Amino acid sequence: MNGEYDYEDGAQHQDGARESAVAGASNTNQISTSFFPPPPQVYKKFTKRNLRYLEILNSHKLADDEPSWDLLSVTQRLERQNAILRQPGSSSKIDAEQLQDEEADMAAIQDQDCDKPMTDLPDFDLKAELEPPNVDWIEEDGGYTVFGQLWPIPDVTPTLQQLGIPVLYPLEGTDRKELLLTLLRTLLQTYREITGDLLKPAQPYDVWVPAVPDPNLTPEQQQQQMATNPGFWTQTTEAKDRLKHMQNVVVNMQFLINELRPVQAKETLKLIMQMQLERRKQEMQLIQERCATMRARVEELKKMLGKQSDCYGSS
After folding, report:
1. Residue spans per domain, the chain
2. pLDDT tens figures, 215-264
3. Could you tell me where the Polar residues compositional bias lies?
């Protein structure tokens, strides 16, 4: 019993040490493995103190001989920002006690700033980090960048050719339903063939992979890119080729399904309208039936009253 207990205790200690090591490694690398990752850390900069500083910068009027903020470099912007915030006067003076009261509710998101004295100024560009983006500039540039990914305006769905994926179906004049069934049969057939390839010894061979031009470049730049880097040789096997073919088939199926989204939305809207019409018809039929029942009841009451009046008259 004691030996078994010691073994379990030792296993628990080992598991705890392993979990601590993993936690320490994750904290060191700052990698989030959560299914719902936390928001970007830029939200910590939106404190009440920084927003007050931003109001001071926006209320400051530049002299005629001073260049605009957009013409300054990053270092020059920080120097001007610190110079404006250090100016004495009521417009640039922030009461420390008032700031402490205002930031008491935001202590959870300002753990790193709480240890700093209130006289410390931000070490980042307030106008660049806290001001909302300029919509005119976004429309002029034709898109915006979020977390390193470019989103064009209006939103444009890239074609399979632009993604470097071969098109496995004719582009025009074909029923998409039949195309999806054909691609599904191709996927199943390729899956059966790849199971047979796994039972045979691998025989690698070299294939030429052509380069795909960058769709964001101009045609002249694309030609220059293809001239300098037309492609490369790589080693592959039949199993790898079939696996790549299966991936291309799945992407083609997804692309066709996405093209059917407007049709699906249209048919769904038709179905909803038909359901609403049928419900209105059922409600109208129910009302008519109730009205007919009430009329019949009223007629019965009239007949009963007529018979009673005849009986009283004859008596």
Report:
1. 39-93+115-134, 162-294
2. 777 788 888 888 888 888 887 788 888 888 899 999 999 888 888 888 88
3. 25-35
